[in-house]
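INFO batch 0412 | record 1 of 1 | parsing
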Amino acid sequence: MEGLGSASVGLVANPESSKDIRRVVTYASTVPNHEKVNRLRRVLVGLSATAVQTVYYFPDAVGLVPQAADRLALPFALVPLDLPVTGTAEDTSAAAQALTALGAGCLITLGGDGTARAAVKGSRTLPLLPLSTGTNNAFPLLIEPTLAGLAAGSVATVAPQSWGYRPLLEVWRNDECVDLALVDVAAVAATLGGRAVWEIERVRAVATTQLAPGTVGLSAVGGHLGLPVPQGTLAVGVTLGPAGAIMRAPIAPGTIADVPVLDYAWLADGAAFALPSGTVLALDGERELVARDDARWSVRPVAAGVPVVHIEPALLACTRAVDSYA
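INFO prediction complete | emitting tokens
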């Protein structure tokens, strides 16, 4: 077929997604591994209807992808990546890096915001199709997995341009970019405990790419300001404190909290939002960095952040690739 892209797709499924402490302290649901296998099976069926020749997958310890492929007559080679399994987010990052080196046309992830973030930390050039199975899913897509397989296969073969950038947030320490987030960065009062953040009274500031209602998590602090967004805005930085004006936002599944807003700032491409030191920085909902007092910490949105598959154009290209109808 003329116009084929790389004809290969990557597949990374996170067996630990949707299992953190927020299932205990909020009403977040759990997606069991057998349901992830079911969704992966539908992804493989969708890919089977495209011209994809190879599907590379990360061989997680649970074996989600081989279980999904069991008893399927797949028209492509299903190849495990030769990578160590650590059971951490580094697995997803390493897989994305390896897939980029292999020239894959698209990466499908199965997980939440954290899984997608780990993939982007491994590659900021590989088109991503993030399927939602995590806790807070502001970034992943809520679509039927069969369609996800069709769209990813289309991008890898007949529609290599069916993607576009979504902004991300870079975390800066002094004059160095040290990390990134896809949805939100929160400065939280230093505390021990689990990595997940759900206690709004400990949050001192939030920067988020989510500018409209429709998400659950700390990103909702930006989306529920209820203010007109200036043209060219990529993110908003919000400062919280006891004396702030109260707004209400869904900060976790089944949890709507009073959020005290002291101030806010609209952020264009590259604009810096200062974060308070002496806090712990939570990236996409999980504590990751200690913002020590001996450094300046800030967040800067980047317009050319994450290449994400555009589902409708990719699916339309699939229909146009059909030579004839019965």
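INFO post-check: The helical segments are 22-25, 33-48, 64-69, 89-102, 113-122, 145-157, 220-223, 311-320.
INFO record closed
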